[in-house]
Amino acid sequence: MTELAAHVGLASVFALWFALVWRARSALRQPHLRGLWLTVLAATTAITLFQPRIVAGLTSAGIDVHTVSLARNLIGVLSAGLVLLFVIDSSRSPRLRRSVAVGMTAALVSLLVLDLLQVGQGGVGTAAAQRPASASSAYWLILIASHLAGDAVAVVVCWRFSLRTTERDLVWSLRLFAAGSVLALVFWSGYLFHLFDPDPHLLPYLSVVMGVHGFMRVASLLVPTATALARSATALRTAWQLWPLWRDLVTAVPHVALARPRRTRLQEVLWPRYPPALLAHRQTIETYDALLTLQQYVQPDAYEEAHRLARRAGVRDDRLASAALAGAVGQARRAVLDGVPPAEARPLPGVAHGSPETLLGIARMWPVMTDAVRCHDRASTTQQG
């Protein structure tokens, strides 16, 4: 269990520092994210100094364990105070924020004084890397009470505000932050018990809890990044699915396209000329514009014939409309390529608004319905005209 705790702890530390660096530029520019970023920064520093391997590395560099523990305790109380300031800032209560700032300062000064008194009385810091800098019970209680107060308020306020806001990213950031604070409450409650009743078997479990708490802080910080990645993935999937239909239609009606299609859709998706969202949007718009143009080349019975052929081929009922549209559009595309002159536009069912779902439905049936409907030759079309 001790080995597992060490691995989880180090993994959470690396994840925390990665998240902080990744989000630093955007978070520091936005006031509503700056508090969260600074809070996670302080917590990350304290968690980093809690890892035995990191403490061992610092001591081998000439820094004694007492100094590391004292720095960890002070930064931890600072992080607890920043948690309170972060959640209270949402309620916009200046008086309460001043009270928290005064209380945090008093706790920091008290820890320093108690540590100096112990050193002045000949006491020395304990050699245990994960214990507080001072053996004083008052020191322990101030340290842990600060954390418990900060995390308890964070759980209540973050969860309450997550129920009031409609911004999805903020909702998930607040709820993940609250979940991390619940784990922090578990850790500090168990840590207080461990200090007064040192059971060597308890600390590894508490270390795992603290590591998972670190991952929760990472998740709360990276919610906007995860959302952006999800949107990009959705856009790329749309572009991938739409590409064969888009390529064939803009080849037949090239004036609707801003740029010619590349040779493969792998090139289009892996090395996009535009951001993913813009790529998907552009292909959707261009495909729809091409459909509107091709309606001038649709034969009178093309949609009905494609519908019959699709039903006869065993196409599912929920895809029959898309298959019929794909067949009619395929006939119109071949008419353009064969040089058939345009006629009066014949609007196709369901294409009026050009929803992405409709276009993706056509794209799904495009490979099997492209050549399903026979195209009239030029002479017969001219005679009909």
Assembly type of the shown chains? single chain
Largest sheet: none
Mean pLDDT: 84
Report the portion of residues in β strands.
under 5%
Q: Which outline best applies?
A: elongated
Computed structural class: mainly alpha
User: Roughly what percent helix?
Assistant: over 70%
The total of helices stands at: 15
Q: Tell me the total number of β-strands.
A: 0
- What is the distance, rounded to the nearest whole angstrom, between the alpha carbons of the first and last residues? 84 Å
Give the helices and strands as they follow along the chain: HHHHHHHHHHHHHHH
What does the radius of gyration come to? 32 Å
Catalogue the unreliable spans: 378-385
Walk me through this protein's architecture:
There is one protein chain. This protein has 385 residues and is mostly helical. Helix content is 75%, strand content 0%. It has 15 helices and no strands. The chain has helices spanning 2-29, 31-48, 52-60, 65-89, 94-120, 137-164, 168-196, 202-221, 223-252, 265-270, 276-294, 302-312, 320-337, 356-369, 378-384. Helix 4 (65-89) packs parallel to helix 6 (137-164) and helix 12 crosses helix 13. The chain is elongated and about 100 Å long. The termini are far apart. The relative contact order is 0.08. Mean pLDDT is 84; it is low at 378-385.
